[in-house]
Structure formats: structure tokens, C-alpha cells
Amino acid sequence: MARGSKSMVSTPIIIVNFKAYLEGTGESGLRLAKAAERVWMETGVTIGIAPPSTDIGLLASSLKIPIFAQHMDAVVPGSYTGHVTAEAIKGAGAVGTLLNHSEKRLRMADIQACVERARQADLMTVLCSNNPPVSSACAALGPDFIAIEPPELIGTGIPVSKAQPEVITGSIESVRRVNPAVQVICGAGISKGEDIKAAIRLGTAGVLLASGVVKAKDPEAVLLEMAMNAKP
Amino acid sequence: MARGSKSMVSTPIIIVNFKAYLEGTGESGLRLAKAAERVWMETGVTIGIAPPSTDIGLLASSLKIPIFAQHMDAVVPGSYTGHVTAEAIKGAGAVGTLLNHSEKRLRMADIQACVERARQADLMTVLCSNNPPVSSACAALGPDFIAIEPPELIGTGIPVSKAQPEVITGSIESVRRVNPAVQVICGAGISKGEDIKAAIRLGTAGVLLASGVVKAKDPEAVLLEMAMNAKP
Amino acid sequence: MARGSKSMVSTPIIIVNFKAYLEGTGESGLRLAKAAERVWMETGVTIGIAPPSTDIGLLASSLKIPIFAQHMDAVVPGSYTGHVTAEAIKGAGAVGTLLNHSEKRLRMADIQACVERARQADLMTVLCSNNPPVSSACAALGPDFIAIEPPELIGTGIPVSKAQPEVITGSIESVRRVNPAVQVICGAGISKGEDIKAAIRLGTAGVLLASGVVKAKDPEAVLLEMAMNAKP
Amino acid sequence: MARGSKSMVSTPIIIVNFKAYLEGTGESGLRLAKAAERVWMETGVTIGIAPPSTDIGLLASSLKIPIFAQHMDAVVPGSYTGHVTAEAIKGAGAVGTLLNHSEKRLRMADIQACVERARQADLMTVLCSNNPPVSSACAALGPDFIAIEPPELIGTGIPVSKAQPEVITGSIESVRRVNPAVQVICGAGISKGEDIKAAIRLGTAGVLLASGVVKAKDPEAVLLEMAMNAKP
Q: Would you tell me which residues 146-185 of chain B have a C-beta closer than 8 angstroms to some C-beta of chain D?
């Protein structure tokens, strides 16, 4: 299996966004990545990690866990400074990228260009959405996954699967109507095994989470409990 | 000497911005970085490289050459996705960062926050400017270096030191008046030893360049010729 | 008929974007607006104008022609400086707004919020798109019109209806599949009656144009010839 | 005295930012503007208003009070959609513009271009700053006024002149050192005559305020009390 291969990714999937947390950066990020890798190996549940861009190349050189960039820019390789291209993400060994996270919203034309460029570079795309109409629009652009995250629940510990199940089911319906090939995962407030169980029961293919794992006292234990609950 | 230490940086300095060029990304970027390191070792002239963010950690883990990020965001570690913090840059092993490149302009309040945050993280700042009044404003914010680059000359091969020497000397004067501790380097169109010689003669502490080296047939030869001409 | 009423708008429609052209600003903009109004009165073909925001209130106070804002921000009335709200557009007497013009691209979540807020404020939305997949995504958000404009043709005088008819027909198909209630108009390079005729023949409900009229020696004559050709 | 003439502006000055408040938009904005004009006439203290852009032309056509835009874009007249040019602001009858408000931050190069373009169009500039180092940088760009507003106090009713007097005095010193021709005003939390008195005592040339007047039950009474306290 090639380094950074999309074939490593199956569902259900748990994607851990390291964000810009100190716990997910540099040495600490490496420890967290290793813990995630162990849970993946142990349970067989696909776990992806999205570390800060500065760490992608280094983590990919020593780990096998699927790595996602947190963001990608809609530019081709060339005279651009401070931009993250599909080629740089792929070249560093990642398998895909988050797009349009609520903390890094993208313009619509750029999302379309990113999805297309990522596909050409053989990268998976996890396109973030905030409500059912936006999920429809996202589906029309053909990403691999849509991650539905109501921004007001991010970081609260209140799971979207409990607080706003209709946002998830509504998004799944919207997406199916427009483009049934796109899978839906959900995020915001996910921190326990029962949250992920509920998410899967609502019809999602997994979850996107961050602080629930990254800021946990024992991230490996939390992630293990989640992965166990994600199993069919 | 610690990894990623500012003490590696002296003047004159040549900073090579790898931009988002394929030649500066992934495996190709590693080769380019090694070539730059050899020239630095051979000549003793400080050469810094600014690779894509995705490669910073990996390059820093195997090379000694001073590495700069191409961009930094004005946020503290925390709940931010797709942002590059001072801590991530430092943690990945870089010594500093470019800021406000003409291809990644920053808002004024963010530049001030970045300069301050970089200082706290012991990172050097190379703040890009486009004309003498902007250079004055930059100087007031106290970066380590100001890189004056008329945007219209970037990538043209027409050296700013020849085409617009008054922009360089005007910027140096403006900067001295406001903050004499800040050093000025220049960029845009630099591709030969004589360009860097002219830049130093005009009073700069070095150059910031990109395509002149990155897109050269033999980057190492070009860089070597430049470094020889940069010597006092 | 109320001031700024949507009921003034029927199809085929010709929307003239005054952009930031001097010819469309202040006194000159007023003259242009009056010329457009005369053509509308004379031909019965709906002509909308999109002047600079600073002129909307004044033009609406003395003219009857349907006025569109060039841009709207996705914020509710409140503590926002330099933003254009739906309420400000409506309050100034306009009937609708352009959204996501290639010169003012919006983030996807903001487009969705703008379309919804405009609807609540009884404003029409003309959502700009650049290619068929983006048109699909736009359709999912439910604007009144989608204006398909390949950015590379804007201002060239090469009509999209001739140069890239498949972009128009492809967009129309994409839009119908996702949301048949949305009408499609097209722009870029439209400057003659035959261009608009071709656009309507391809299935559009009209055109969005700018320099072809605004920078014309005799804008009224050009617009009149267009309106005559737009008639069924 | 010409319409929209800078000669109407003297110090001390009170600038009322209508923001995107409903109370400052459309018909309500017109009433507020008239109240401000009466206070100006009655007291002789310069009062400027910064209404939503959509209302500038209409207000300027029927009132004499100095009007400022809330924002300006750094583009020349031409093919730009949804941008506010110096020419549009001037043409609509305003005397100047706010720049870089904390709710509409600008990139440094754009601020410099805006200040220069505004000067060419004979418009005054009120450049917003958030702390002393940024005030220094602002001063280097040569605006007419710098408005120092700690963002964390905006809309709180806690006057900056009381909570953080050192931010004001520090900014005044920073500005004098770099460019003594620039006048400093202050904002954030200003809602009473004593606040403006304190601001002037600290060395400012006036205040920039918003909710304290716009959201007041009786804006005219509040503004009158302020103007009386601003008198030498």
C-alpha cells in the first residue's frame, strides 16, 4: 500500500482535527498522532488525523495513519507565497484535505476549484457545511465527504447528534437528492462513544472531531472508546 | 547551536522563497534545500530558505540551514483550523517567517500581532513592503527585516536594484527615520550576482528572491555565484 | 406599484452593472440611469441597473427603474462598519442585489445566508457563477437568478453566447436538475443585440452586462438595440 | 462653501458612525442625520456622520453636515464590482472616509493606497488603530486623523478615556514622533459628555462613537450634551 494512499480510508471514519492546539502541534502532535495510529491498528476503524500544515511532511514520513491537511488553497503550483497546493499536500504524504472549515471558510468558486484539483492530485476531500441548504450546494460540487458542523456547537461538548439531529438528517437527505455518491459525516460537540454511535445511527459515515480528543486528559482512551462504538 | 536558532542568521543574507513552485515542493524541495545548504556551508554567507509549510518540519529534521515560513497567522494556539501559528512554525524547527508577502498581504493589525507573537516565540520576522511609505509603517512595527519588493517587478528578471533603485534607497531612509534597528533587504527580479552586489551597494543587508534560483536550470550554481558576490 | 418593488421585474431581463466605472458614478451614473430608464419605458423590456452603493438611495429617490446593489454582506443589522445589509439595500429603494460577482467572490456559507436574508427583506438575488458545477451549487441555494459569467471573458467583447455556448447550456441543465425554479441569465462579452438574441435562444432569461453599455459612446443607443433584440 | 468640502471640518470633532444599525439606516438614518445637523448648527462643534454607503448620496443631497464613508476600497475607478472608490465617495457628496475600522480591517498596502487615493480625490481620512504600535504605523501613512479604538471596548459603554487612558496617550506620543501633522481622536465606549471631555483633556482632537448616540433613546439630547462638553 503506497504512502498516503486513499485506499487506507474506509468507513466508518473518525477524523481528528488537531486545529492549532498546542496539544496537536510539534512534539505533542507527534505523540497524539502515534496514539491515534495505535487505536486504528488495534480496532481496524479508520482514523484520520488533520495536524497543522507545518507537521504534515514529518508525520507522514514516520507514520502510516491517514493524514489530512486542514485547508487547501485553490491555486496551481507557481508564484504563490503562503499558499497550500494540492501538490504540496500530496507531496508531503497526506491522503486528503479538509475544506471550508467554519474557521477557514472558502469562497464558492474556490471550493469547486479545490475539489477538482484535489481529485486530479488523488486527494480525498472533506468539505465542511453548516446547514442543509449549504450541504446541498456542497454535494453539487462532488467532494468525497461532507462534514456537517453547526458552528455554534463547535467546542461546546454538546453533540450535534443530540442537540440538532434534524440538521444531520436534513443534510443527508439534501445531499442524497443532489449527489448520492457523497458521504456525510458530522461534527461539533462529539466527545464520547455514544455520540458517534448516535451519529452513525442517524445515517452518517462517521465523525469529525477536535477538542473532545485533542484536549482530553487521555486522548488514546477517549479515541479507543469512540472507535469501539463506531464498529458495526 | 540549537535547532532552528536565530543565531544562525547573520548579514548579508540571501533568502530563497520556494513559493508554491513544484521545484520547491516535496522531494524536489528537499533537493533544492540541500543545494542551498551546501552553498551556505561553502561560502559562509547566510542563506535562508522558505519552503511550503507542509515541508517545514521534515526539512528542519534533516537539515541545518535556517528555515523561514512563508506566512504566519495572527492567532494564538487554540481553536483555529488551517492557520499557521508562531508555535507551529517554531515547533517545526524554523527560525523565522516571511510576513505580508505581496502574494499574501496581511491586515495591519494582524501584522503588528504577528511581529509581537513571533518575537515571543523567538522567531525572526521578514516583513514585506511595496514602497517607501509602507516601509515606514512597517518599520514602526519593529520586525527584524523589511523586504522591499515592488510587486510589478516580481518574477520579471528585471532587478529592482537596477529598475527602481530609488525605491530601495527611499525605503532605507524611511526605515532609518522611524526605526534604525530594522534592516532592509530587497527583492523582485534578482537573479544574478551583480544584482545582489548592487543591492548591497545601495545599503541593503541582502536579498529575498524566488524564481531566479528555484526555476533556474542549476539552482546551486546560481546561488553560489550570488553568495560569492554577496561577500564583503 | 411600490417603490423598489420586485413586481417591476419580468423576463427577459437586461441588467447593467455600472461597476466602479466613472461613467457609472455620481452625475454620470445618474445620466446613464436615466437613459436606461427611457429604454425600459420605450421597449417594455425589463432593464435593471446596478450602480455603486453610494448612489443607490439617491437614484432610487428620483427614478423608477429597478435598481440592484452590486454586493451584499451576510450580516444582520447591528455593529458592523462598512458592510451592506439587506435592510440598507431595501431601505435605499433597490429591488435586489448581485451576489458573488467574480470581482467580489463570497464564501459559500455567506452566499446561503445572503440569499436567505435577501428573501426575508423581499429582495431579489442574482447569484453569479463561473461554470456548470458552481451553477449547480448555486441552484441548491435558491436564488431568483443565476448569472453565468466565465471570468476570462469579462470585459473582452467576446460574447459568452458565441465563445462558450456549452457553459451556458451546461449551466442551464445543471440548474434545472437541482432547482428548476431558478432562472439563468448570462454575462461576459455581451455588447450587441445579436449577443442577447443568442443568449435567449440558448435558453437564458436575459443578460448581465457592464462595459458593453457603460463604456459605450452612446449607451442609450446600444441598450435600445439590445432591448429590441431581447423582445420575444 | 462647496458641497462635501473639507473646509467644513474643524476640531474638536465628533464623528458618529451609524454602522449597520437599523436606527442609522434609510428613513431612520435620515432622521438621525438631521438631528446631528441641528446639534452642529446649534453648538458650532463639528459633527460628522458615517452612514451606510447606500445612503450617502441621498443624505448629501439634502443635508449640509459633513458625511464620511464607513469604508473605502483601494481600487481605481474601473472594472470592479461591489467596491467603494474614492471617486464614488466624493461624487456622492461625502467629505471623507473611515478606514480600517476594527469591523472592516484593511491590508497595510491597501491602507497606504487608500490614504493616497483619498488625498488625490480631496477626501479626509480617519484611519482606525487599536494600540500604540499600530498608531505609529498608521501615522507613517499620513492620514488626516487616527482614531484609536481598543476593539475590546467597542460597544461596551466603558469609555477608553477612563479604562485605558495610556492607550490614548501612548498613541498620541507614538503618532507625534512619526508624523506630528496627524491628529488623534479616540473611540470605544464613549457615551457621555464627560467621556469626550476626558478624551480632549488627554490630548485628542475629538471622538469617534457609534452606539452611544445611534442606539440612544434621544440621540439628539445625547449628542447635544457631548457637543457642549467638547467646546473649549
A: 174, 178
User: Considering chain D, what is the average pLDDT of its residues?
Assistant: 93
User: Can the peptide bond before residue B12 be classed as cis, meaning omega within 30 degrees of 0?
Assistant: yes
pLDDT exceeds cutoff 90 at B156: no
**Residue in D107, D136, D140 nearest the CB of B105:** D107
Q: Which residue of C has its CA nearest to D17?
A: C81
The pLDDT confidence band at residue A104, using thresholds 50, 70 and 90, is very high
Q: Mark which residues 50-109 of A lie under 8 Å from C by CB.
A: 100, 102, 105-109
The pLDDT averaged over each successive group of 10 residues in chain C (232 residues) is: 69 96 97 97 96 98 97 97 98 97 96 97 96 94 94 78 85 92 90 89 93 95 94 81
Does the residue A36 lie in any domain? no
**CB distance D134–B109 less than 8 Å?**
yes
Q: What is the mean pLDDT of residues D167-194?
A: 90
In a domain, A31, yes or no: no
Strands B145-148 and B183-187: parallel
Q: How far apart are CA B39 and CA B193, in angstroms?
A: 14
**Chains in contact with B, counting 3 or more C-beta pairs less than 8 Å apart as contact:** A, D
* Paired residues of D126 in beta bridges: D98, D145
Q: Do residues C99 and C84 make contact, with C-beta atoms less than 8 angstroms apart?
A: no
CA nearest neighbour of D102 among D3, D1, D189 = D189
Q: Is the minimum CB–CB distance between A194 and chain B shorter than 8 Å?
A: no
Q: Identify the domain containing residue A94 by its residue range.
A: 11-18+45-75+83-230
| Higher local confidence (pLDDT), C149 or D220 | D220
ipTM attached to this prediction:
0.94
Q: What is the pLDDT of residues D112-160, one digit of tens each?
A: 999 999 999 999 999 999 999 999 999 999 999 999 988 777 777 788 7
pLDDT digits (tens, 9 = 90+) for A140-171: 999 999 999 887 777 777 887 788 888 889 88
What is the model's pLDDT at position B223? Answer: 96
Residue D3 lies in a domain: no
Q: What is the number of structural domains in chain D?
A: 1
Question: What pLDDT band is residue B146 in, cutting at 50, 70 and 90?
Answer: very high
The answer to the question of residue A32 being in a domain is no
Q: DSSP assignment, residue D198? A: H
Chain A residue numbers touching B88 (CB-CB < 8 A): 20, 25-26, 52-55
Known catalytic residue at C83: no
Nearest alpha-carbon partner for D115 in A34, C57, B134: B134
The CATH number assigned to the domain holding C136 equals 3.20.20.70
Picking from B111, B142, B178, the nearest residue to D140 by CB comes out as B178
Q: Which grid coordinates are listed for B112?
A: 503588528
Q: Is the dihedral of CA A42, A47, A48, A49 positive or negative?
A: negative
CB contact under 8 A, D77 and C22: yes
